[in-house]
Amino acid sequence: MLDVFSGEVERVAETHDAFVADVNDVSWQETYLVSRIVFELHEAGKVPGPKQCYAISPPAALGGPNPMRGDPVPRNRSW
Known about the structure:
- This protein is mainly α and 79 residues long.
- It is 30% helix and 0% strand.
- The chain has helices spanning 16-23, 26-32, 35-43.
- The chain is globular.
């Protein structure tokens, strides 16, 4: 996996079957896909439109939070 926050590459599973099993685990999803934050945004009605996506700003490389290292991600930005 390429960590887009740090630029590091990390092996997340030893086999394809292990990867599939991990992807179906809620804890894995919350860590690697920040699914809890996406869920909260959807619950608040903040759903990206066509050709839009969520982004953490500023990026970790520029001093922003890195949720994969446990940094809290502020959820109070307005769109």
